[in-house]
User: Which sequence fits this backbone?
């Protein structure tokens, strides 16, 4: 019940950006007050309580938008710009392990709603490298990553 209330409060505070794609993307991570903030870190099962994107929706973002490395208020990440000129910023917020954030400003990970075919208990997401590039990531569902919501 508490997680449902948290989800509803979070959704009410989220602004969604129209990138001209099949879904609108939140302008900040879940729990963040600004686009460059990482927000909260969630396991895959927790993240599925939010409107996380599917593999297809993430693929569309990766294929139909321009991605440029940028530093926003001290946080490295990617400015993702659509053909319509609208954009979102995805910070390289690392991941949570052992109660602390690891690889902040070096890597960014974002869950998709899609279970991986590569191994039991793994799901797909995007891995962003602050040294350049982004790619698909398949990882254990108990990893804690920031979450970027979509609106369908």
Assistant:
């Amino acid at each position: 019940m508490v997680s449902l209330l948290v989800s509803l409060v979070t959704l009410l505070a989220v602004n969604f950006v129209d990138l001209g794609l099949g879904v609108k993307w939140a302008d900040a991570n879940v729990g963040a007050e600004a686009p460059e903030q990482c927000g909260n870190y969630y396991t895959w099962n927790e993240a599925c309580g939010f409107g996380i994107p599917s593999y297809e929706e993430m693929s569309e973002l990766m294929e139909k938008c321009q991605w440029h490395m940028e530093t926003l208020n001290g946080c490295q990440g990617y400015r993702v710009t659509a053909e319509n000129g609208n954009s979102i910023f995805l910070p390289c917020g690392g991941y949570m392990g052992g109660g602390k954030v690891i690889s902040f400003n070096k890597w960014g990970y974002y869950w998709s709603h899609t279970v991986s075919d590569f191994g039991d208990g793994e799901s797909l997401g995007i891995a962003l490298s602050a040294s350049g590039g982004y790619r698909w990531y398949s990882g254990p569902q108990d990893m804690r990553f920031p979450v970027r919501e979509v609106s369908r």
Remarks:
- The chain has three helices and eleven strands.
- Residues 7-12 have pLDDT under 50 and may be disordered.
- The two ends are 23 Å apart (CA to CA).
